[in-house]
Amino acid sequence: MSTPRARQRRLSAATVARLPLYQRVVADAALRGESVVDSTVLGTRAGVTPATVRRDLAGLGTLGTRGTGYEVDLLGQRLAEALGHDRRCDVVLVGLGHLGHALATSRTFLAPGARLSALYDVDPEVVGTTVGGLVVHDLADGVEAASVAVLAVPAGAAQDVAERCVRAGIRALLNFSPTVLRVPPGVAVQDVDLSTELQILLYHLHHGTGPLAGGLWRDLAPGASDALS
Amino acid sequence: MSTPRARQRRLSAATVARLPLYQRVVADAALRGESVVDSTVLGTRAGVTPATVRRDLAGLGTLGTRGTGYEVDLLGQRLAEALGHDRRCDVVLVGLGHLGHALATSRTFLAPGARLSALYDVDPEVVGTTVGGLVVHDLADGVEAASVAVLAVPAGAAQDVAERCVRAGIRALLNFSPTVLRVPPGVAVQDVDLSTELQILLYHLHHGTGPLAGGLWRDLAPGASDALS
DNA sequence: GGATGTGAAGTAGTTCACAGCC
DNA sequence: GGCTGTGAACTACTTCACATCC
Question: For chain B, what is the domain count?
Answer without folding.
Answer: 2
